[in-house]
Design a protein that fits this description.
It contains 8 helices and 8 strands. The chain is an alpha/beta fold. It has an 8-stranded mixed sheet, with helices on both faces.
Length: 267
């Protein structure tokens, strides 16, 4: 009887010790969980920081002319680029660029030239160009006929700065040399994609005009295409980034972009 009682007491003691061990383990787990919740703060809501990228994509001669590459604008030296469809490489570049773009940005004359041709065409490139959002800078164009087109009538610098805030991805400019010059002057161009054709014309509208300051560029990529065409990609380097950005310019945005960002409600 004594042995039985001793064994029962030993079993009860073991059960009590096991229960105490389980209680201590549970309390330890709760304590660790509480410490983790206390030490790891809840992630704040993410703000929209992405901006659209203004990409200037041009056919250009060795001496910088961009006027009338296709030869149907009446320029005496026009037609120096030929037709894109005659070059598989150029056609692929045009398609890839259109597929990657978030929108097109154009001056009125370039817009009207494209709008007179592409809506009636078919194929992958035509489908993409016709469906893309298109923004045309013009004080006179009232009713744009091309599908999915919006007219920007206000101050061009403010309009484009706002557009960069609203659109993610590449905002591609083709032709539109007067618009390009304005945006370069105000540091709103982020990237240049230049297809340089091996010909010098000695006359015609040039891509670049006089600017109030240097506009440094960083070479990103080079390709040699058929026919001796050099395809160069440059990234704009803001002068304040080279000299050291001031606190108000630490974001790397151009001054006009900073003003628009301050006025625009955060999302």
């Amino acid at each position: 009887m004594i042995i039985y009682e001793y064994l029962m007491k030993a079993v009860q003691d073991d059960a009590q010790r096991a229960g105490e061990r389980d209680r201590l383990l549970l309390e330890a787990r709760r304590a660790r969980r509480a410490r983790r919740q206390h030490l790891v703060p809840t992630a704040p809501a993410r703000r929209r920081t992405e901006m659209g990228k203004i990409v200037v994509s041009e056919n250009v001669t060795l001496d910088g002319v961009i006027q009338d590459p296709a030869g149907d604008e009446g320029f005496r030296a026009g037609g120096w680029a030929g037709l894109i469809g005659n070059s598989p490489q150029l056609a692929k570049l045009a398609l890839d660029e259109a597929l990657a773009a978030g929108a097109f940005l154009l001056g009125r004359r370039s817009y009207e030239w494209l709008a007179a041709r592409w809506p009636s065409r078919s194929g992958e490139l035509a489908d993409r160009l016709n469906s893309l959002p298109k923004y045309v800078v013009s004080a006179t164009l009232a009713n744009p006929a091309w599908n999915n087109s919006t007219v920007l009538k206000g101050d061009v610098v403010n309009e484009v700065s706002t557009l960069k805030q609203q659109i993610d991805g590449d905002i591609v400019i083709a032709g539109s040399f007067q618009l390009v010059r304005t945006l370069i002057e105000h540091d709103l161009v982020d990237e240049l994609r230049l297809k340089i054709f091996p010909v010098a014309l000695g006359a015609g509208e040039r891509l670049f005009a006089e600017t109030s300051d240097n506009k440094p560029m960083r070479l990103l990529d080079t390709q040699i295409l058929e026919g001796g065409i050099a395809y160069l990609t440059y990234q704009s380097v803001r002068s304040e980034m080279l000299a050291g950005a001031s606190p108000g310019q630490a974001s790397g945005r151009a001054p006009h972009e900073q003003q628009v960002a301050r006025r625009r409600p955060q999302q």
